[in-house]
Amino acid sequence: MTPAGGPRILVxxxxxxxxxxxxxDGADGTVWxxxxxxxxxxxxxxxxxxxxxGAVDAVGHRVVHGGDRSAPEPVTxxxxxxxxxxxxxxxxxxxxxxxxxxxxxxxxxQVPHVACFDTAFHATLPPAARTYALPAAWRRQWxxxxxxxxxxSHAWVARHAPAIAGVDPDARIVSCHLGAGxxxxxxxxxxxxxxxxxxxxxxxxxxxTRSGSVDPGLLLWLLQSGRxxxxxxxxxxxxxxxxxxxxxxxxxxxxxxxxxxxxxxxAAEAIEVYxxxxxxxxxxxxxALAGIDVLAFTGxxxxxxxxxxxxxxxxxxxxxxGVDDGSNAATLGDGEVSATSTTAHTVVVxxxxxxxxxxxxxxxxx
Length: 366
Prior knowledge:
The protein is an alpha/beta fold. The protein contains 15 helices and 12 strands. It has 2 domains: 9-117, Nucleotidyltransferase, domain 5 (2-Layer Sandwich); 167-348, ATPase, nucleotide binding domain (Nucleotidyltransferase, domain 5), CATH 3.30.420.40. The strands form 2 sheets. The chain has a 6-stranded mixed β-sheet with strand order 3-2-1-4-6-5, with helices on both faces. A 6-stranded mixed β-sheet has the order 9-8-7-10-12-11, sandwiched between helices. α1 (43-53) packs across α3 (94-107) and α10 packs across α11 (265-288). The longest helix is centred in the C-terminal third of the chain and has 24 residues, at 265-288.
């Protein structure tokens, strides 16, 4: 927390289809916020919203893909161009983030702008977790590391989950960011040790419209046989797979759960696939930490869908994980939902990427 007289920070949180704007005062209090949904990158509605926000001292931007950057950076024309060059690695997010950078600088040219990267938190991944088993020549020429994503959200979990659980800040945490995009992260001593998203945000868990991990041989078979083109594969895997592809719905978990309640077989199977991958991933992240002290759920689904939390925890008793049905059903914000007989704490953490971004902005601009 910073003194009340500290700088007012406008946080620009750009998603794949929405734009969340929030002004934080010097004590991290929210003094204004607005969401533009949907947002297609048009500068006009953003400029109008910034006008309503009032005076600010600096602007912090969430940028999904920062490449190999491990710390926030001042926004310059050169940085914007270098971030735009990463668009093919995060096609759902990067164009919106670049559009927001340009529009905000045009609206507020007199204040500093800082880019905060979702990939930066994962700069602490050890080589064993960061490195793909690819040909040496490929790695020498192009790098091709596991970057990891949702870092700003996982960073907040690393800070806040131990306080909710009442454990040491250096505890072993498995953080599950579950929203339209989803990823898990193994955290110890406040640092990322492993994560599910990789070179792009398409890897890992089943998501709303993204496939998550798929056998590369399956994709090669589709491509080499001419059944699909590379462009079609990219579009289908990012926009028409995941829960949407499994259930025949829009992929919003609320829609899928409602369809399951109506007896829809495809929706029920979609949720089972989603939970199967999630449970297996939680166990894998715990293995990377040699144990688990805290299981944390965050993101829109992680915070607002008790049924998903309960389904994810089911079968993880061997890790000491379990949820109390009553507290789990009643908790839709920060709180602990552990069953009394468990050794690991299960907590819900409201996503506050804005607080992490504001801290990074203040640290950079002094």
